Give the backbone structure.
Amino acid sequence: MADSAQAQKLVYLVTGGCGFLGEHVVRMLLQQEPRLRELRIFDLHLGPWLEELKTGPVQVTAIQGDVTQAHEVAAAVAGAHVVIHTAGLVDVFGKASPETIHEVNVQGTKNVIEACVQTGTQFLVYTSSMEVVGPNIKGHPFYRGNEDTPYEAVHRHPYPSSKARAEQLVLEANGRKVRGGLPLVTCALRPTGIYGEGHQIMRDIYYQGLRLGGRLFRAIPASVEHGRVYVGNVAWMHVLVARELQQRPALMGGQVYFCYDKSPYKSYEDFNMEFLGPCGLRLVGTRPLLPYWLLMLLAALNALLQWLLRPLLLYAPLLNPYTLAMANTTFTVSTNKAQRHFGYEPLFSWEESRTRTIRWMQAMDSSAQ
Ligand SMILES: NC(=O)C1=CN([C@@H]2O[C@H](COP(=O)(O)OP(=O)(O)OC[C@H]3O[C@@H](n4cnc5c(N)ncnc54)[C@H](O)[C@@H]3O)[C@@H](O)[C@H]2O)C=CC1
Ligand SMILES: C[C@H](CCCC(C)(C)O)[C@H]1CC[C@H]2[C@@H]3[C@H](O)CC4=CC(=O)CC[C@]4(C)[C@H]3CC[C@]12C
């Protein structure tokens, strides 16, 4: 609990606060951070749900803005004690150009760092990604690794490259003097594949299954493990890290933490079936129905079609060479670093995470009918 001197004194800023993860971080802060006085939510697109938050005891300030615009970021950061930077362009489907991805993820992060330095904000939490580590372009497995596991991180795709560069900038900024002379304290959280209420890709896969008559066809061997973590636990980690960074700057400053919980180790498709199954979908096949070389060919064909059609329309299917490689390479984490450094324990059990996600999908299903 808050000590009385600090009760309701703090101003937090969440960039990307209207995104899938950002909304959960915002709601979690309002529930779990008693020292909050003002919560600023900065996003390119503000959600209508923000209105309902404005009636509570914490001042909620919605700021429509663009992280690529340094002056907009600086204005939002000025006077904040803590910045949680979740805004990012999450695109592995070729919807945005590599330049735009770089601009938002790298330049946007530079702008956030500079704004902290110029305005005197001392604590910065960055939402990084497992993708800054891997899977790498060689398809090496990362089997239940931790933050210190050696791994050859080599990226070519714009999204992981941009996240890796942005993470590096955030960590290098740790210790810089901010306005007023105090040191900036930064750290980065690396979620694996996030799931839960509001997950757009899960929604897309669900509707794809409905279009296929309630069936999905196994494409990836069940033995390939893909790390997943519940959005509520990722949000909780952000809240805890932001709080504890202020108490233990020497230990936590400049550190990276994988986001983890008790979600089971499974293949991407088998894991999704934990939610899609109770919504009436079936995964056909105990082994992949198509040989891998044929899937690769289809993925390459999709990439070619995307390129050919680009002047006319945006063709961005789920299957492309990059997403196939991601889904087909084992990448799972097993670590307790967050528990050791700042006492993190998942707030939601696997059963609760699963139930909440299923409930959300079923509500989505009935509202679609
Ligand atoms: N979804 C996942 O599985 C994972 C996501 N992440 C990271 O978590 C963060 C949040 O991701 P999601 O919530 O999944 O994505 P999202 O797309 O739902 O949320 C991103 C938010 O950032 C905002 N945004 C984008 N460009 C902006 C700009 N130029 N200025 C201001 N706001 C902007 C968007 O409007 C959106 O509300 C990202 O940094 C992403 O890299 C990390 C690991 C896994
Ligand atoms: C869309 C992919 C599944 C396609 C299945 C196929 C090939 C049979 O059609 C998803 C597989 C792995 C996902 C990524 C992974 O969970 C890690 C991520 C981390 C992030 O920071 C952002 C999201 C993502 C890249 C995630 C995106 C979807 C997959 C590629």
Remarks:
- The chain has one domain: 4-200+227-265+331-361.
- The radius of gyration is 21 Å.
